[in-house]
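QA checklist item 7 of 12: single-chain prediction sanity check.
[x] sequence parsed
[x] length recorded as 185
[x] structure emitted
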Amino acid sequence: MLSEQKFKEGMAILCETFDRKLSDLLLKGYEMVLKDLSDAEFEKAIGVCLSSNTFHKLPLPAEILEAARGNIEEKALLALNRLEDAIKKYGHYRSIVFEDKIIHMVVQAMDGWQEICLLPLDEWKWKRKEFVELYKVFSTNPRGYPEKLIGYHDHYNSIHGFEDKIGEPVFIGANQKRLEYEGAK
């Protein structure tokens, strides 16, 4: 949650830089959009706005939000590429843990890992669009998600009482953060 002090300080810097009068109404409008950012996200966004030659006037609240969190459309497409790569490489047999937990939310909403992996190619082209739209929704409104997307082998072993045969999931992400997953158990 963005602290009042950081918010006012950042807005004062922006207004001073872009020769704009800082008013209570201006602050209220920007706060309505930016209040859910953390202090660190807001500082990062201010830095991006100041160091970019894209902005020739005071950035709009949505532009500051995008500077803090990145372009959501690009993130959704990158996540879709990661998902498709995992489907091709591992299929529905292996359990998967994505670094980007929004992928877990979307896969869960789309009936689960195994079901997505088994979709016929002609259906997947429509599901790709659904994935991107759901990703954008969950990015701004996250909800609970499974820690891993269960593959066929782990599901089978679990329901037949072979917990000792449940394998290590495949970790997918920029840093392959296996330790985070193990720490969450």
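[x] summary fact logged: The chain has a mean pLDDT of 89.
[ ] second reviewer sign-off
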